[in-house]
Design goal:
Blueprint (H helix, E strand, L loop, with lengths): L2 H16 L7 H9 L20 E2 L5 E2 L2 H10 L7 E5 L5 H9 L2 E6 L2 H13 L5 E5 L12 E6 L9 H4 L1 E13 L2 E9 L5 E9 L16
Parallel strand pairs: 3-4, 3-6, 4-5, 6-7
Antiparallel strand pairs: 1-2, 7-8, 8-9
Length: 220
């Protein structure tokens, strides 16, 4: 596909999918315009880089649709001074968006190949304020650090409190909570050492994060 077509496709993605889904923060729209999503999509699906679908990744994982990626990033109310923790690097595209809007991103994925591929793609696009980690972060990561923003890129059936405990004062946690077919996107904001505010943002459904806790089934 010629570069001009990529440019037009990216514009159409934003105007026809992302903006109509209430992503109106111009900073978010700008970075989605500037960062080439097609560079983070598996080569076999490059022709679907701007489609309103989940794109398959290895290990039965997926990229979120563009409109959901934009909504997630917007919801975090990111500032240029923020340090961010991303749980679930995946393709690295959301990582790149986060990095463009903040001071530093720590991103963690259970799959080493995702981490290595994302590290290479980020470097190729001169994105230097990201540290990529391989590991199991479902129970926390860098627990001695307080983050200004934490984002879970996979869903969890229940949201355990250790995530919100890692927030700095005024820090924000984005998580999609529940079970298919309907889950709830939530934003938890820490207001002091002992209090948090929880806001319900919208309904959606995405695959569970690796290692997410499972709800106990009822036995009759």
């Amino acid at each position: 596909m010629p570069e001009l077509n990529f440019t037009q496709a990216r514009f159409n993605m934003i105007e026809q999918q992302v903006r109509p889904w209430e992503v109106l923060d111009q900073r978010v729209l700008d970075v989605m315009s500037q960062i080439p999503r097609e560079a983070f999509v598996p080569e076999a699906y490059a022709h679907l880089a701007f489609a309103d679908i989940e794109i398959p990744l290895a290990h039965n994982q997926v990229m979120m649709p563009p409109k959901l990626e934009g909504r997630v990033v917007q919801s975090l109310l990111l500032k240029p001074t923020d340090r961010v923790l991303e749980i679930g690097t995946g393709s690295g595209y959301v990582t790149a968006l986060l990095a463009a809007l903040t001071n530093h991103v720590d991103t963690v994925d259970a799959f080493v190949d995702f981490v290595e591929d994302s590290r290479a793609k980020l470097a190729a696009h001169h994105i230097k304020n990201v540290t990529c980690h391989a590991g199991d972060a479902v129970n926390g990561w860098n627990t001695n650090i307080r983050y200004d923003a934490i984002v879970l890129t996979g869903s969890v059936p229940i949201l355990k409190p250790h995530w919100q405990a890692q927030l700095a004062i005024d820090g924000r946690l984005f998580a999609i909570v529940g079970q298919a077919p309907i889950m709830e996107a939530k934003l938890i904001t820490r207001i002091n050492e002992y209090e948090w505010i929880e806001d319900s943002l919208f309904e959606t459904s995405i695959p569970a994060i690796m290692g997410a806790p499972k709800l106990n089934a009822f036995v009759f």
